Amino acid sequence: MASSWLNLENYSIPLEEINLATDNFNPQRCIGGGGFGYVYRGQLSKHWQDRIVAIKRLAKDSYQGEREFRNEVEKISGFYHENIISFLGYCDEDNEMIIVYEYATNGSLDHHLKDQNKMCCITWIQRLKISLEAASGLNYLHAGPGEHKSVIHRDIKSANILLDDNMVAKICDFGLSRSGTKSHPSSHIYTKVAGTQYYIDPTYIESRILRKESDIYSLGVVLFEMLTGMLVYRPSRIGEDNTKTDSLIKLVRKYYPKEPDRLIDPCIKDQISSRSFDTFKKIAWQCISYDFKKRPTLDMVMKRIQEALDIQLQENVSAHFERIGKDNGFNHGKPVAAFTIYKLLLHPNYIEAEKTKFFERLLQIFVTADKYQISNRGTEYWLSCASNLLFLIQRSLKLDAASSVQEPPPSTLAEDEIVEQVQVRNQVLHFKDQLTKYLEYMCNIIFDDMKKELRLLLALAIQEPQINEGPTSSKKSFQEDCRFSAWHGILDHLNTLLSTMKKNYVPRIVVQKIIAQVFSYINVQLFNSLLGHPEYCSFRNGEFVKVGLAELRLWCSHSQEKYAGLAWDELKHIRQAIEFMVKHEKHLLLYHEITNLYPILTIPQLHRICTIYRDHTHTHRLLLLSNVNVTSIKLWMRENSSFSYSHRLNNSFFYELKYVFKTLLILILYNICKIYWDDTHNVSSDVIIMMKIWMKEHSHVSYELNDTSRQAFSVDDLYTSLQGNDFANINTTQ
Length: 734
What we know:
This protein is 51% helix and 7% strand. It is an alpha+beta fold. It has four domains: 3-102, 2-Layer Sandwich (Phosphorylase Kinase, domain 1), CATH 3.30.200.20; 109-315, Transferase(Phosphotransferase), domain 1 (Orthogonal Bundle), CATH 1.10.510.10; 334-467 and 477-615 and 704-734, no CATH class; 619-675, no CATH class.
């Protein structure tokens, strides 16, 4: 026994284990077969990590024997490449010769080619990738996986190209392979012809000289199988041909020179671009040249297939970007443009094809959203797109994070692949951050538009207009009362905003954020206007504003409640200020009672309201000091109806009434009572003194509010709010 064979003892798997894994080679476990025998699906025991495997059993009557078995085991045990099937072990007991491989979930490529329904499910991009991966695996063999020897496979065909669960191609079956030397890469081997009919190089059959170019010819046959979607030995109808021809390659040689389009599988005709097709067919045609010297190297084959793939990816990306700009509307209440973009993100190859320009182009769509406003698609539509896209990205990132914890990435990944995955992830994370900022930007655009609409209305809404009303005006409803036209306008703009948001399916949490910003702005504008204008601080005006605020509360509490959220709380300052203004008998309240009743308002704010309050004259107290009551004044007025006055008295003069109370002044006192209400509408002088003391100790505190309506946006909050939504009906795969 050769020393190399002895080194494989660690890979030996007992026959008993094989029998258990295959249920004693139960025919129901058989998943394929060929000239060597049959392949079974099995599951090894815990000693072999419960792995699902493919078990290749050499048949007793096979033309292959121990030499081919040992040849394959020795070779494949030294292969380590993502496009070469992994060797797990072998069994050589009781005249059984068995090889155990990793299990390829999607079977061999020829099984797909035999079933047109299966083949139609393999897109042109997937076919290009499979072709590229097969060429890469073959290039690995030709370059020499061992220390000194390169390998000529000698049986490249679609049956020997397996597809794993990710549709990654892996070359298998090395029983017929032959070794060459790295030092003489162009050397040829005289050998008995072996391989599979229709795939074998004609020059190899004629000369019996085996060259690397023979494998390239066989690969070219597989490339045309991928293009046409047909097995080489079972061609279906092409054009008007009745397929009496016994080989696909004969049909290729017939149609390629003048009618190459007839060779395209109808299933992919709408997917394949002309440039990608031209690049691919040319390299495939060169591979099957009768003159082996004109066949390309595998490096050239890989380069050209990669070019065809890049061209197709770029054109697909461009097509997707074009679709994004069209009026795609909504699907099950979700913006189609968001899911079109998400499809792009699901394909790292699209990202790779565009390099760094990919994410720039995506962001540019949102930055220049006005360009894509078709059928009145405005900012709200793109706000909806950005919100849903952020949710989908966040969900994918969380799922990836969870799966990476449960199933660490396989150590077999090449270093450059790991680096590429990390780079793509980092690009996605950066794009998510940029999109989050742009979502905030779009919210602020809508908010700023609302501010422009509301600014004048809020200036009018803070003061009751002086309108002459008839005797029945008090019976009018809020909607009918023209005094509240400014408040009507505010409500109309809020209804329009909410209606537009709902029409564009903007997520509820985003709507709540924008409405909260608007209400915060209303709060600041009304409050600062109130405290900045003495003429606004009156009991009557407070009652007017109170009615308007009550309508805003109704707006928040009715059907809009789920969208308004906590918007009503944003009006806390103006609400408490108005409540304070219209409270009766404020003169009875003590300092600490006021601060407890109105905790939102600061002492400077309360002091400001009290000191500019228009009805603060202490009339009632003055009347008591002068022992005059309102009834006696009214009686005197009836008796002296012709008397008039032309001036108001200041407070200091009223104190003199206690000593000088003359009939002449009764009319003046009456008019004071009529113009000014009693001091139950304002606080006592003791409270004012206490406020002044506090203000002196805290002189830096201002009574005005700062506009803090703009707030940062939380992607986690968005993710949580949308997590329960139904995204299952939306097709996010390609």
